[in-house]
Amino acid sequence: MRTIEKIKFACAPIAWTNDDMPELGKENTFEQCISEMALAGYSGTEIGNKYPKDPAALRKYLEPRQLQVASAWFSTYLTIKPFEETKQAFIQHRDFLHAMGAKVIVVAEQGLSIQGQMDTPLFQEKPIFKDSEWGLLIHGLESLGELAHEKGMEIVYHHHMGTGIQTTEEIEYLMENTSPNKVSLLFDTGHLVFSGEDPLEIFRKYQSRIKHIHFKDIREDVAKEVKEQKDSFLTGVKKGVFTVPGDGIIDFHPIMDAIVGSGYEGWIVVEAEQDPAKANPFEYALKARKYINELIVNKLIVR
């Protein structure tokens, strides 16, 4: 019988307050966010902008709620800025996460990214890296991987809508041209399906390099509208393109089966950015946790 005892489940704060669009959830406090995560049955959290940046202060909030830090997002600008600028910011970010006990660092290249541009069509104006930009990115990521190793940590690359690494081909190129010992992969179900990729194909091909997982679902009608109306990524989020596992079109049963079968050890983070005024964060976090519990029972997996 299979086991998931080395898989832990976390929740991302972006459902309570959106860091890219702070007006979404501005009324929700940090304390409410982490309390509702714990109440919904999660044992971990990623980091949002409202979280204390001092490790000792943050621990005072998380420990009574029995929450651990799974990771936190770090934006790289390796294709457009000198490496030293990214390096210094990365070291500060790395040291904070290390102090909080995290094992992986989520990184995503924001050079040329349109994900934060409210009026730029997501599918029609997606950036495409030139060879020179790929070279800067690959060298920079491997260097960051080495810096992470100084603290016994790994970087996990987050393929993301509206960036230069979004599609299957781009993920494959990154994986084929970086050292497995220096650059690992974050597997995000929602971004893959939204982009039109096959998440199972990606997971099976790179399962040995996947060190962090995000579970989010897709509302098919909204995704179709975003593409047809030439909406931006942020507009798509506001319209509700993302939702929690079990509330959209993705069948997570074969995905969970593949994850468990691979022997994955680490965090699965429910991360579904929505407008909290339309989608109550606690209710959706609870809905996702119940769905994940059903996946576990249906697969006859022992916790």
State the gist of this model:
With 303 residues, this protein is of the alpha/beta class. It has 11 helices and 11 strands.
Outline the secondary-structure elements.
Blueprint: E1 7-11, H1 30-39, E2 44-46, H2 55-62, E3 68-71, E4 73-76, H3 83-99, E5 104-109, H4 131-149, E6 154-158, H5 168-176, E7 184-188, H6 189-195, H7 199-206, E8 210-215, E9 217-218, H8 220-228, H9 233-239, E10 242-243, H10 252-261, E11 266-270, H11 281-298
Parallel strand pairs: 1-2, 1-11, 2-3, 4-5, 5-6, 6-7, 7-8, 8-11
Antiparallel strand pairs: 9-10
Explain what you see.
Helices cover 40% and strands 16% of the residues. It is built from eleven helices and eleven strands. α1 links the parallel β1 and β2. The longest helix has 19 residues. The protein starts with 6 loop residues before the first strand and ends in a 5-residue tail after the last helix.
Essential attributes:
alpha/beta, TIM Barrel, 9-stranded parallel beta sheet, two-stranded antiparallel ribbon, 11 helices
Kindly report the name of the CATH homologous superfamily: Divalent-metal-dependent TIM barrel enzymes
Give average pLDDT, whole number: 96
Quaternary organization: single chain
How far the N terminus sits from the C terminus, by CA atoms, comes to 11 Å
CATH topology: TIM Barrel
Structural class: alpha/beta
Which segments are poorly predicted (pLDDT under 50) over 5 or more consecutive residues? Answer: none
CATH architecture: Alpha-Beta Barrel
Number of helices: 11
Please tell me the total number of domains. 1
* CA-based gyration radius: 18 Å
Element pattern in H and E:
EHEHEEHEHEHEHHEEHHEHEH
The count of β-strands is: 11
Give the fraction of residues assigned to helices. 40-55%
Instruction: Summarize the main sheet.
Output: 9 strands, parallel
